[in-house]
Task: structure prediction
Amino acid sequence: MLGNKRVNGKNHLEIAGVDVVEIAEKMGTPLYVFDEELIRSAMREYQTTFASHYPDFAVAYAGKAFLCSAMCQLVNEEGLWLDVVSGGEYYVVRMNDFPVERILFHGNNKTEEERRYVLKEGVGRWVVDSEIELEWLAEEAKEVKRKVPVFFRLTPGVDPHTHVYITTGTVDSKFGLPLIEGIAERAIKRALAIPHLEVMGVHCHIGSQIDTLEPFLKAAEVMLHFMYDFSKKYGYFLQELDLGGGLGVPYLDSDRDRFPSISAYGRAISEKVKEICTVLSYPLPRLFVEPGRSIVNLAGSTLYQIGTIKEIPGVKKYVAVDGGMTDNPRHILYGAKYQAWVGNRVQGENVERVAVVGKCCESGDVLIPEIDLPSPRPGDILVVEGTGAYNYSMASNYNMIPRPGVVFLRGGKAELVVRPESFYDLIRKDLVTQSEGEEEGPIHG
Ligand code: LLP
Result:
């Protein structure tokens, strides 16, 4: 079992001291459930590790992994920065009074509307992704009073050996400025001549769900050499280095030992940066990291109710739940692996090998292709673990399935922090419906 879970006297699964059957009865399924303490402890592990190994640093939580108002408030309380990647994420964060000075703004194609919105409100670091963006920013930043503090996203050409869809730091990438042919260097030099911009440093993010430290260390080395060369050539010291996110996490008990801990990661990159700076006699830059998955994934689980069960003799048994690729598209997208428990009968006889599938009109709508479960039955509560990152944030309304709500567990209690969508939410934005519909429709959140 992952995270803070146990089996109670009723043979029910408890997460953070709360019985999942009670949560499901009270709040319905499907439902995303987060152990608040685990989110906080991951944030603290990042903060304390860097504090003990590096003099000047900032940890920015990557909101794309999981963002809602309650999460913004946690991040703010723990004193982290927040990395946003769209006007929408920026809006959610600002609506929760998150200080602009701790917001980092990303995006390979920030629209004019997004750029103007963020410029008007303010930002901690603006991550320039392309030369075209730099020229737009040069014009648009004239209208704001403060200088805009900028980073440049570079592609260091390091392959982290993760899924190709989440590999981002190789030369052939839609993100960032390549180091080849002096492109990155040319952009930064150009920015130094723009009076409304303050060039703070450089950024890279090589990929996600990375299971070894070596690619991070390699990226740090490439970036620092770039900073050093730049200082030699132009006499300008880039003072900040953002190494992005990407630390991988186990999704299965059998993978527990495969991933470096947050502490091991923080220590290794801190030491590496210090070591290279000593060799190059380069002043220690302020170090930024942008973890997403490693902060929230372990803390999240999804509760489903089992519905139909189909047995094809000699072939397979399909167990269908009341959600699927709409609330968790990660198996169909990346072949991600998950483990699950029958929440109302954790330990049971007659374990059977089954496939857990969703309710969408799509054969690929599979959550777990093969898992042993104790004779699953209709009405059972199925708990899929490790769904904290990139589930809620990637959920869709395919097949007009309402998106689940979000519950935070703390102090032995469950609090609904995002209500589940209702059927009415599915037509709320439609302007030409025949009948009005109402909030209190047949199924409401
Ligand atoms: N910083 C930047 C610039 C990023 O693009 C990302 C993730 C992060 C930080 C956070 O990375 P993390 O620590 O979470 O690995 N949907 C995919 C993951 C996409 C990651 C996109 N960028 C998935 O479900 O695996």
Remarks:
- Residues 150 and 199 are 5 Å apart (CA to CA).
- The chain has eleven helices and 21 strands.
